[in-house]
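@channel sequence for tomorrow's demo:
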Amino acid sequence: MPFYKRDGDELHCAQNFVMNSEIELRAEFHADYIYPVDGWYWFDTLDGALVGMQPTPLSVTMRQARLALFGAGLLSSVETAIGNLPEPSKTAALIEWEYSNDVQRYNGFVEALGPILGWSPAQIDALFSTAATL
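structure tokens (generated this afternoon):
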């Protein structure tokens, strides 16, 4: 029951603890942490880690994105944030939102809205991962 961290195509495993200059994770306290912690997660099994740490999809359909946002209670927040953008960013974002067939993870639209909504890159990745399953 160790900690796992994905680094590109590699999956790192730390059985009992992870320690560096910024963090200290100990197995006996694994339930107390809010993951990810510096990219590390706790999984009970290797199979769980392999399933749970699939690389973030680079794109999802707009349908998948909206369903994931709706399921997380965030759909209206995105629509409000787009409406509050200054021009010409607002019109460009509306075109992306209303007419795109898919959403790309590293699109400027996603990169711009994430911080406005207070989302970390890890939270955006999690939304894309969830969306890809819908």
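heads up for whoever presents: The helical segments are 46-52, 62-71, 75-84, 89-99, 108-116, 121-132.
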